[in-house]
Amino acid sequence: MNEPTARTTAGRALRNGPRRLFPPDPRTEGSDPDYRFSLANERTFLAWIRSALALAAGGLGAVALLDDFPGEEYLGLALLALSFVTAGLSYRRWALAETAMRLGRPLPPSRLPLLLAIAVSAVAVASAVLVALNSS
Question: Would residue 70 count as lying in a domain?
Fold first, then answer.
């Protein structure tokens, strides 16, 4: 890759990075879809937010309640980080789906369910290992 192309690509990524991660308000594009689809999309967003709140509560609970448990800080921080990622990506998922509906396009695929399933599984396995090590 030649030097000017590399700089142009890097500059574009820096300029569009936050915009790609957090899309603008989709209600400014296209036409209003059937309200039932918008409400269903909103309910899905709120379900993801509830999941993020549950992860945050679990993370705060792990740090506050597991005083004599080795690894409590790491468990709590992992849950809090997962909560942050889930909340942020849930907005992105809502905005991209709303934009697609308004423009009459197919709904975009999302990796959020896979990411959350893998991360929660990893935290569960790590928690089980910590419990096993602590009970020995």
Answer: yes
Let me know: does 123 contact 78? Beta carbons within 8 Å: yes
State the pTM of this model. Answer: 0.75
pLDDT over threshold 80, residue 3: no
Residues 6 or more apart whose Cβ sits within 8 Å of residue 16: none
Q: Is residue 11 part of a domain?
A: no
Candidates 125, 103, 78; CA nearest to 23 is 103
End-to-end CA distance of the chain: 56
Q: How many CB atoms lie within 10 A of CB 63?
A: 17
Q: Residue 95's domain spans which residues?
A: 29-135
pLDDT digit string (tens) for 45-99? 999 999 999 999 999 998 888 877 778 888 899 999 999 999 999 999 999 999 9
Non-local (6+) Cβ contacts of 83 within 8 A are 52, 53, 55, 56, 59
